[in-house]
Amino acid sequence: MPHILHLDASARPGLAGKDLHGSHSRNLTQRFVSQWLARRAQDSLTYRDIGQNPPSIIDHDWIAAAFTPEEKREPWMQDTLTESEQLVDELIAADVLVIGAPLYNFSMPAALKAWIDQIVRAGRTVEVDESKPLDPYVPLLADRPRHAVILSARGGVGFGAGGAMAHMNHLEPSLITALGFIGITQVHQIAIEGQEVGGELLAESVAQAMNQVDALVTQLQQALQVNRMPEPA
Fold first, then answer.
1. Which of 29, 46, 55 is nearest to 110 (CA)?
2. How many CB atoms lie within 10 A of CB 225?
3. Model confidence over 80-96: pLDDT tens digits?
4. What are the residue ranges spanned by the domains of the chain?
5. Can you tell me the distance from the alpha carbon of 142 to that of 185, in angstroms, rounded to the nearest whole number?
6. pTM
7. Residue 177 burial (CB < 10 Å; 0-12/13-18/19+)?
8. 3-227 maps to which CATH number?
9. pLDDT under 70: residue ranges of the chain
10. Which residues contact 84 (CB under 8 A, 6 or more apart)?
């Protein structure tokens, strides 16, 4: 059965339209997950609110521990990597990664960048093949089909592909690069725009994004059903 890893990275804890200063990206992720489970209640879910509980920022000790071979790590190194190991395990277990991420100052929230830094790990999510110095990186999460769904919200307009402000949007491109590096290359994007504009423009963008989420749930459930490995008898 497919497993979903649901991440919310917005600093806003509430939902737009329901709570004061609520989050549009959380609205999208909640819509995606609720629609998914309404159709496939047997599937499993892991939820992590990194917007309210950010992962640790990597430091010198983390780097020293992560780049020390496992068999040579001292106890303090194992302790340092405990959080990273859990986050990596959650990602490896997922068939569908759902990320709710607002566009903050042209890129991703700091909490989401901290999560990326914790899960891009040599020996866990990417391998380094020293025999190929010009192309040494081997993505370890390409072992089976995985999908990533990026559900974002933007204050302005024109930040999508082909838009007038697209060159200033470093949220989705950065996520796609990092996820592709570890082997997750099937990435789907839906965004709400015009939060700062409001009015009819925002309402239309929200309605369109919700419809796109519903369609994407159907598409991915069909794709995973087709690609599902036979379960043991």
1. 55
2. 10
3. 999 999 999 999 999 99
4. 3-227
5. 8
6. 0.93
7. exposed
8. 3.40.50.360
9. 226-233
10. 62, 66, 118, 119, 121
